[in-house]
Amino acid sequence: MALPSSVALGSLAFVVAAGVGWVAVTSSAAGEETVPAATEPTTTHPTTSKPTVLTAKPTPKSEPTPKSEPTPKTKPTPKSKPTPKTKPTPKTKPTPKPQPPSRPTEAVPSVLVEVYNNSGISGLAAAKAAVLQTAGWNVAGTDNWYGNIAANTVYYPEELKVQAVKLAEELDISRLRPAISPMQFDRLTVIFTAP
Question: Does residue 178 sit in helix, strand or coil?
């Protein structure tokens, strides 16, 4: 077996020493963190002996967002003025229609009238007296008449004959007679024998 030559042994020793140094550097690097310098960091690649300088590229500044223009303030709408209250127009009552007269247009005589019932129908004199009072006649009283009267009749004293005719027209009575006793001679007397 040939002994290695001194050159080969020297090379081997160099390689072993380099390997031990490399392991020592590597293990110390693994245990400690190194803080890179604040300026430009350098790194070495195992395949190249030239150090590569890495420079940090500045991040591009973002363009400021354009400010939106303020919206112009709108003028508040003016409050509408309340409409003035109008006074309600007063309600007018309809004018009554003129009613046709049921008797001559002359005024009702102011003479007294007595009304009697000779029909046997209860309340007939009072009902006819109410009709006369509504028409404006001055009814002095009502009662029952005893005796036989042929038909509805207006009795009058001689000086009240004109008023007796008006009363007969008002009641639609066609029979007129001069007043007889026991009738009073200062008024008209009406006797009803039928409604």
Answer: strand
- Report the relative pairing of strands 112-117 and 188-192 from DSSP bridges: parallel
> By the 8 A CB rule, do 102 and 170 touch?
yes
Helix (H, G, I), strand (E, B) or coil at 115: strand
Helix (H), strand (E), coil (C) string for 38-55: CCCCEECCCCCCCCEECC
Q: d(Cα 114, Cα 138) in Å, to the nearest integer?
A: 9
The tokens describing 118, both together, are 């000779």
Q: Tens place of pLDDT for every residue, the chain, 195 residues?
A: 455 566 666 676 777 777 666 666 565 555 555 444 444 444 444 444 455 555 555 555 555 555 655 555 666 666 666 666 666 666 666 665 555 445 444 577 889 999 999 998 999 999 999 999 999 999 999 999 998 999 999 999 999 999 999 999 999 999 999 999 999 999 999 999 988
Q: Are strands 175-178 and 153-156 parallel, antiparallel or unpaired?
A: parallel
Are the beta carbons of 167 and 113 closer than 8 angstroms?
Answer: yes
Distance CA 134, CA 113 (A): 13
Tokens of 187: 């008024």
CA distance 67 to 51: 47
Strands 138-144 and 42-43: unpaired
Both structure tokens of 41:
């960091």
